[in-house]
Amino acid sequence: MLFPKKVKFRKWQRGRKNPAKLARRAESRGIHVAFGSFGMKAQTHARIRSNQIEAVRRVLVRTIGKNGRVWVRVFPDRPWTKKADEVGMGKGKGNPEGFEFEVLPGRILFEIDGVPEEVARTAVIKGGKKLPLKVRFVAREHA
Of 5, 44, 83, 127, which sits with the fewest C-beta atoms within 10 Å of its C-beta? Predict the structure, then answer.
């Protein structure tokens, strides 16, 4: 699973969770297919954990076979914490458990190349079921 070699701060603050404001926010970086021919684009806001990224990557690689290539366009660098089981409220924040990536609508998560469009579309649909957000299949815009 993916995780950073070193982090400046062990624990991060959560940030705001107002769904109305989150729905209006959109990604401004990483919104175009840059490396492959097809991509998986996020439609909603979510935080994706490193094990979910790895699960999607495995589904994509298995579906497209040996001729295809997969690019992972996100990296989980945000630590998430969890208090131990059966521990009462208070007494500080829990220990870091793993890393996640905050996804905004419009971000390209994965890219695929070297396979026909039908195979890529099937792979993106299968992989999207492993994520806690809605995704869309996109093709590269040829100018």
Answer: 5
